[in-house]
Design brief:
Shape of chain A: globular
Largest sheet of chain B: 6 strands, mixed
Strand content of chain B: over 45%
Distance between the termini of chain B: 41 Å
Number of helices of chain B: 0
Strand content of chain A: over 45%
Number of strands of chain A: 11
Largest interface: A-B, 33 and 30 residues
Order of helices and strands of chain B: EEEEEEEEEEEE
Oligomer: heterodimer
Largest sheet of chain A: 7 strands, mixed
Helix content of chain B: under 10%
Structural class of chain A: mainly beta
Number of helices of chain A: 0
Structural class of chain B: mainly beta
């Protein structure tokens, strides 16, 4: 069974802390994505990566960074967490190519609360 | 600009009722793909269907059917004889060929409650 796993389902952090969210996929996908999901806003793309060590900003990258040292792993970093980063974070992966036709496979999400 | 609108925030139905989830999209690209995903309470979005911009044929898969109409820029999803297990948030999404699939735009989602 193909899988995208995320390191934590629930996380509570304090303002100013550095936060690491990890995502691992076992499907040998080239593309990996980080989204945040907020009520009424759907999913918004934070960063994506199409290869190891490659990363591109999405629509809302401010306050976040990412790391992709291995093909299967994509990490999201909140350098200094703030309360407005309280959200559900979803990781996804897909095959590259296909000019947009490839569906994404999602992890279960990490619900982050910043106090 | 690309945009996906799901005007229905929440829908509540009784089991065995039919329900249609609406999706309207905007794009300037001529080649694009439309998707539906289901997010059950467990949180993990699951892919349901994909349609490309050149294929307006409607599709039926069991109790699910999809109606794609380019003339109205809509890609609606109907569940026939709904069941409690259909309770979830459903997302419509758009991916344009020009972005290579890297920037899929998701609608805000429609939360479906199916009551027994």
């Amino acid at each position: 069974d193909v899988k995208v796993t995320q390191s934590s389902r629930y996380l509570v952090k304090r303002t100013g802390e550095k936060v690491f969210l990890e995502c691992v996929q076992d499907m040998d996908h080239e593309n990996m994505f980080w989204y945040r999901q907020d009520p009424g806003l759907g999913l918004r793309l934070i960063y994506f990566s199409y290869d190891v060590k490659m990363k591109e900003k999405g629509d809302i990258p401010e306050g976040y960074s990412v790391s992709r040292e291995k093909k299967e792993r994509f990490s999201l970093i909140l350098e200094s967490a703030s309360t407005n980063q309280t959200s559900m974070y979803l990781c996804a992966s897909s095959f590259r190519g296909g000019q947009g036709r490839n569906e994404q496979f999602f992890g279960p999400g990490t619900r982050l609360t910043v106090l | 600009a690309q945009k996906v609108t799901q005007a229905q925030t929440e829908i509540s139905v009784v089991e065995k009722e039919d329900v249609t989830l609406d999706c309207v999209y905007e794009t300037r690209d001529t080649t694009y793909y439309l998707f539906w995903y289901k997010q059950p309470p467990s949180g993990e979005l699951v892919f349901l269907i994909r349609r490309n911009s050149f294929d307006e044929q409607n599709e039926i898969s069991g109790r699910y059917s999809w109606n794609f109409q380019k003339s109205t820029s809509s890609f609606n999803f109907t569940i026939t004889a709904s069941q409690v297990v259909d309770s979830a948030v459903y997302f419509c999404a758009l991916s344009e060929a020009r972005t290579g699939g890297f920037k899929t735009i998701f609608g805000a989602g429609t939360r479906l409650f199916v009551k027994a």
